[in-house]
Amino acid sequence: MARPKEFDGEAALGAAIALFSQHGFEGTSTEALLRAMKISRQSLYDTFGDKRQLYLAALRRYNQENVADFVRAMMAAPTPLTGVEYAFMAFIAKAVASDHPSCLGVSAICEFGRADAEIASIGDASAHTLAQALKTQLTAARAAGEMGTDVDVPTAAAFLGATLAGLKVSARAGADADTLRRVARLALKSLK
Amino acid sequence: MARPKEFDGEAALGAAIALFSQHGFEGTSTEALLRAMKISRQSLYDTFGDKRQLYLAALRRYNQENVADFVRAMMAAPTPLTGVEYAFMAFIAKAVASDHPSCLGVSAICEFGRADAEIASIGDASAHTLAQALKTQLTAARAAGEMGTDVDVPTAAAFLGATLAGLKVSARAGADADTLRRVARLALKSLK
DNA sequence: TTAATTCTGGACAGATTAGTCCGGAATCAC
DNA sequence: GTGATTCCGGACTAATCTGTCCAGAATTAA
Questions:
Q1: What is the dihedral of CA B54, B56, B58, B61, to 10 degrees?
Q2: Which CATH architecture has domain B60-189?
Q3: Which nucleotide is nearest to A40 (CA to C1')?
C-alpha cells in the first residue's frame, strides 16, 4: 500500500510541549517548532492540522500526564496524607531537575485566562480531575484520622491546587529546591 | 518654547499594563497598544523607546504598585497577622472586581522564566521587597503571640508569596471569590 | 513494476509585525 | 508673528509570520 509514518508523533508532540511551555503560544513560531520537532513543514500540517490544533493537542497531553503523575505519586504512599506530601515532593524533584522549569497548563491560564473557551475547557477538565482525586484522598485522610475534622475537604482540595500553581510559578521564577520543599511542608501543615 | 505633552503618560502606561497582562508581551501588538493607549505611533516611540522598553516600564510600575498595595493593606490592620489576612482579602476583592483578572508579574514569570535577565531582575526586586515586608510582619506577629513559635519566618514569607501567586493563577482560571477567600484563610491557618 | 503514501526541502503568497519617516496642524514661550 | 516642540495620521520598509503548494526521493504492498 503506502509508506508508513516514520517520525514518532508522540515524541514530536513532546518537543512541541517543551517549546510551548517555555515561550507560550504566541512566543513560539512554527519555524521553531519544526526545528525542535525535527519534522518538515508539511508533516506538521498533515499530522496536527495547524499551529493552534498542535497547541491544543500539546496542552491536552501535558495536562493529562501532569495530573496522572501527581495522582500516581499520591496513591503510592503508605497513608493518604503522606501521599499528598509524596506527590508534592515528587513534583518538586521533577521541576528542579529541569534547568528551565515550566508548566504548560499554568502558562496557558496566564496567556489566555478565560478568553479562549476551548483552551479554558482543557484546563477546567484537568483541574476537575485533580480536584476529584484530591477530595477522595483527603476524605480518606480524614477517615484515617490524619487530618483535622474542622478542615473542609473541597476547600482543602482547592487550596492544594492553588499551592501547586504557586509552587510552579515560584519554581519558574527561580526558587531553589529547599525553599520549595519547605513551602510545600508548611502548606500541608494547614490540613492537620 | 514648545508645545507640552498632551497625553497622560501614566494613564497610557496603565492601558499598556492592562493589555500586556491580558495577552502577554508576544501576544500584544503595537497596533493594539496604540489603540488602547490612545496615542499615535510616533508618540509611543518618542515617549517609551520601543515595545520592549514599554513592557519593562509597565512591568516595573505594575510590580511596584502591586507590592505597595499589598503592604499598605497589611499595615492598616489592627494586628500583624490580621494585617496579612486583610491584605489577602483586599487583593481578592480587587481581583474579583475585574472581569478578567490578571497579574502582569506572574504573566512575565510564565512567559519568560529566567530566560530574560532584565525581566527576571524586575520580578526579583519586587519579590524581595514583598518578602522583606512579610518577614517584618511575621516577626511582629510572632512577638505578639499571634503565630506559632515553630514557624520559620523566611519559610512562611516564601509560602505566602507562593500562595499569592497560586491565588492569582486560580483567579485567572476562573475561581469565584468565595473559593479564593476560603483558600486564603486555610493558608493562613498554617501559620498559627 | 506499479500504485499509494510519506518524507524532505524549498518556494511561495498574503498577512502581520516592529520600527522609521514625513507632512501638516496645534500649542506653547518669546 | 516666530521658532520650537508635540501632536496625529498615514505611508513606508524590511522582516517575520502562518499556511499552502510543488518536485522529487523514499518506502511499502500488491
A1: -140
A2: Orthogonal Bundle (1.10)
A3: C8
The CA distance from A132 to A141, in Å, is: 14
Which of the following CATH numbers is that of domain A58-189: 2.30.42.10, 1.10.357.10, 3.40.50.2030, 3.40.50.300? Answer: 1.10.357.10
* pLDDT above 60: residue B1: no
CA distance B120 to A112: 21
Query: pLDDT tens, A49-103?
Result: 999 999 999 999 999 999 999 999 999 999 999 999 999 999 999 999 999 999 9
Give the number of A-B residue pairs with CB atoms closer than 8 Å: 158
The backbone torsions φ and ψ at residue B163, rounded to the nearest 5 degrees and listed phi first, read -65, -40
Does A31 contact strand C, using a CB cutoff of 7 Å? Answer: no
Chain A residue numbers with beta carbons less than 8 Å from the beta carbon of B122 are none
Q: Could you tell me the pLDDT band of residue A3, with boundaries at 50, 70 and 90? A: low
pLDDT in tens, A13-47: 999 999 999 999 999 999 999 999 999 999 999 99
User: CA of A39 vs C1' of C5, distance in Å?
Assistant: 17
Domain extent listing, chain A: 58-189
Smallest Cα–C1' distance to nucleotide D6: which residue has it?
A: B3
Asked if strand C contacts B30 at the CB level, meaning under 7 A, the answer is yes
Strand C contacted by A35 CB (< 7 A): no
Q: Which residue is nearest to nucleotide C8 (CA to C1')?
A: A40
At residue B107, does pLDDT exceed 90? yes
Report CA-CA distances (Å) from B117 to A75, A188, B109: 39, 33, 11
Tell me the whole-structure pTM to 2 decimals. Answer: 0.95
